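Handout, section 4.2: multi-component inputs.
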Amino acid sequence: MATVNRQITLASRPVGFPKVSDFHLVYSPVASPAAGEVLVRSIYLSLDPYMRGRMSDADSYARPVAIGEVMTGGAVALVMDSQDAKLRVGDAVEGMLGWQEYAVAQGRELRKIDQRLGPISTALGVLGMPGLTAFFGLLDVCDPQRGETVVVSGAAGAVGTLVGQIAKIKGCRVVGVAGSDAKISWLLDELGFDAAFNYKTAADCYGTLKDLCPDGIDVYFDNVGGAITDAVLRLINVKARISVCGQISQYNLEEPELGPRWLGQLIVKQAKVQGFLVSGYAERFPEGLRQLATWLKQGKLKYREDVAQGIEAAPQAFIGMLRGRNQGKQLVQLSEL
Amino acid sequence: MATVNRQITLASRPVGFPKVSDFHLVYSPVASPAAGEVLVRSIYLSLDPYMRGRMSDADSYARPVAIGEVMTGGAVALVMDSQDAKLRVGDAVEGMLGWQEYAVAQGRELRKIDQRLGPISTALGVLGMPGLTAFFGLLDVCDPQRGETVVVSGAAGAVGTLVGQIAKIKGCRVVGVAGSDAKISWLLDELGFDAAFNYKTAADCYGTLKDLCPDGIDVYFDNVGGAITDAVLRLINVKARISVCGQISQYNLEEPELGPRWLGQLIVKQAKVQGFLVSGYAERFPEGLRQLATWLKQGKLKYREDVAQGIEAAPQAFIGMLRGRNQGKQLVQLSEL
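Output:
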């Protein structure tokens, strides 16, 4: 049994984009589980944009990570020692285990993973939080109908790729916005998007979107915000539905940014904008996972993973993800299965 | 039978606030109704903020008024001559009759008024478009629950006063934002609002709202937009619902205004913002009017009217309303009942 746990803690609150020096690598003893707890060894750590919010002490829906505290994050792991009757040594679990190699957690806060549904890492992607986020954020908030035009920002991200593919399953015309030509090719050539463009090189985001959406925009799934969303709003149709999942363009600004006001456009278009957190759908997770697993088995959902190696690689991989350098779901492998 | 019709036409498209010189008073012969049409004499003309949009040729949900065309607007009128089997001479009707003393209209585009429900002018207020706007925009979009805090901007307007009173009927705590101390007194002393403040003299809109809404804001009915809405958004609760009815602060700007971005707040609060047009509820108008008439009869809905005299007074009264100088529903009396 290992006795040393390597952890990444928050060293300082970042101003603008996080730097590697905002994190510390620390060593601590591996703890033992008390009654109701388990000790786990993490296999994959998930890196996600929401974590940028936890590094800030601004008012939010979740408590920020304290300075010196282990960074928060989801991971898949194997149970090494159990004081919870419902979990056995060797079970695969998923939960908020943090940026560390070993964790002691309450058994009831972990989700047991059925490895027959897919590789263990999918519990952090298509069969985990990103999959459920795409599923409920698109289907419950927007109810897309066959033939409608669906635009997705952050289209090549872990959530965006699934939103686009689910919209295709529903018979929609899907237009993706992403930040590199390689991502655009992937969306068009492998994931079946009807159109996509690189917002970083498009001379005119609004004009490009207008060309790619000749029938206007019925549904918009927003991971990014900022200028892309400004352009989309000018092109929405009557009764458009907008699901707001993330605003990654705003997370690393040193000063809040101003933008055009568009509530008048919502009136004229009788349109809805709805923010959501996947945690708001917790009671319906089994329904979502069942459907996602079926589509995965049917080959209707494809995914890619971008895997960094070792806990010490997590800060740089996280910063790269915030800058859009990952291709597919960003993971960090912490140990072998 | 009168032979001369006095009309107000659009003389020029205003830049910023309309001026009296943007309108013309013209004389024309009174027309005769063809098959299916009626000739009516208007009693009251309604003046409403949406008309500012019709004076502009920017893209909107409705065709703009052309230069030289009679200004569009709702009115109540008496039938003088009928070529429609469903309407008789002397019937009271409501419809989009325009800024003029006489009109020829399609009988099927007019709503027959039951004068037993209230004075004929109420068909332009509590028992007309403003009443239905308040009813569906509050109840259908926001579904306010007993004990929730409801904030209304433009609270002393034709729609705002009714939104506040309907929210009180539903057992909510109601906070109004309006633009004069006289309006605030009226909201507090006569209409039963729990709190209200004058945004024009409040040193700090956000701080004042925060004091007046100690439990946060669950529902916001927005007629105004701009800085008031910016302040409200910072104070919304989880699962807040925002109904966007108007944006009068923006209608007369010479250049579009920038504002803070707040989609991140919608995510954190899992909140909804919904724009609407009352016309989207046309099929449910009878249901709304029935309930409004019942509340009116029960004394649960109070209203005031600000009545200008004569068609020639309409431009100045309209400009005054855009500047918030009216107290209660702005009407123009065009003839005696």
